[in-house]
Specification:
four-stranded mixed beta sheet, alpha+beta, Rossmann fold, 12 helices, PCRA, domain 4, 3 domains, five-stranded antiparallel beta sheet
Length: 380
């Protein structure tokens, strides 16, 4: 999101110790699928995805299909459709290629039937097994790749919101313009910045560095700290140490923000403020609450949903200032009303006092786990 906005408004930036969003492997894979759906003769994109994720179409099978294309003087995509005629190809590869071409034809049918870019991308990630493979991985980097694909779907959903009549081709053109506009060299570090450039980095990368002004974003329970640390005291403590590192990178001014509503897989989600915000002393904080613009509110969102949006802090550490809502005691089976989610039924509870949480089934809005100190719920 930040990279795309910086590019749109012409702010120079550098990603320190990382790869720009549209250059990341998983994002390029996802876009290659969409490009192939929109343009079946895009051979570069087709070759990128033909065996991604692995589906048994190796280099030898590709070479056999290429030989068929050369022999019969037909395009490579057409040769794939006739893979059974390829010289020397084995039956297993024929079956794998046939399954792939059938799947791609189904995606094109979805596009012709009016499916938007976000729906198409979600279908691709599900049907191909790409997302399932990443989610099953034990590699910590794959967790970040899942988040990036989530962000890609959110970008597509935002495009649909801004351009209801936009097509898949329109979306790909917009993405191409944004990606091509990113001409800033990637080899810069904090000691050699372009004048005025924004430096983007992870908290780990920022260790040992200091900057006059720092923006720390995503301070929400479930993001920072990450949801995987819930119920894991040692991992939660490591997240707290990282929060301290992030806060103390600022020499003069620290801006902390969280999203009142964020998109997860193209759907609105709501997270309570990060529990780490409670540890910042009140006297060091200037709280600013910002209402979302109408153009960026999700349907069903309420202005009463608005909470803390940002804070500008002089260097130091934080405490209180949020979560002054009285905790509503709830038990399993209680009926409640939520400002954004509507009517719901409590299915589980955990903790007491300011740490009390409730899992509530809101029917069509889904099941949500809420920290009652912050949740706008009323017991019925």
């Amino acid at each position: 999101v930040f990279e795309e906005i910086f590019i749109r408004v012409g702010l120079p930036y550098r990603v320190v110790g990382g790869v720009r969003f549209y250059e990341r492997r998983e994002v390029r894979d996802a876009l290659a699928y969409l490009k192939t759906i929109a343009n079946p003769v895009d051979v570069v994109s087709l070759r990128r995805i033909i065996n991604t994720p692995r589906r048994g179409i190796g280099q030898r099978a590709e070479a056999c299909v290429e030989a068929l294309a050369s022999r019969d003087r037909i395009p490579f995509p057409q040769a794939l459709e006739r893979c059974g005629d390829a010289p020397g190809i084995n039956p297993r590869s024929v079956a794998a290629i046939t399954e792939f071409t059938t799947m791609m034809a189904e995606f094109r049918s979805l596009a012709l039937d009016g499916a938007g870019p976000s729906s198409l991308l979600a279908a691709v990630l599900d049907r191909t097994g790409y997302l399932a493979e990443l989610e099953a991985s034990t590699d910590p980097q794959d967790e970040g790749r899942v988040d990036n694909l989530n962000e890609m779907i959110s970008v597509a959903a935002e495009f649909e919101q801004q351009r209801p009549d936009g097509t898949l081709t329109d979306f790909l053109e917009q993405v191409s313009l944004v990606a091509d506009a990113d001409e800033i060299p990637a080899d810069a570090g904090p000691d050699d910045p372009q004048p005025g450039a924004i430096l983007m980095m992870t908290v780990h990368t920022a260790k040992g560095l200091e900057f006059p002004v720092v923006f720390l974003t995503g301070l929400e329970d479930g993001i920072f700290p990450h949801m995987r640390t819930f119920g894991e005291p040692a991992e939660m403590e490591e997240e707290r140490r990282l929060a301290y590192v992030a806060i103390t990178r600022a020499q003069r001014l620290l801006h902390i923000s969280r999203a009142m509503t964020r998109s997860a897989w193209g759907q609105p989600s709501y997270n309570p403020p990060s529990r780490f915000l409670e540890e910042i002393p009140d006297e060091l904080v200037h709280w600013v609450r910002t209402e979302p613009s109408r153009d960026h509110q999700y349907s069903g969102g309420q202005s009463a949903q608005a909470r803390l949006a940002g804070a500008a802090l002089s260097r130091g550490g934080l405490r209180g200032g949020v979560g002054n809502r009285p905790v509503v005691p709830l038990d399993v089976g209680d009926r409640v009303s939520h400002d954004a989610f509507g009517l719901g039924s409590v299915v589980a509870t955990r903790g007491e006092g300011d740490k009390a949480e409730a899992t509530i089934d809101f029917g069509s809005s889904g099941t949500k786990r809420l920290l009652l100190r912050y949740a706008p719920v009323e017991k019925l």
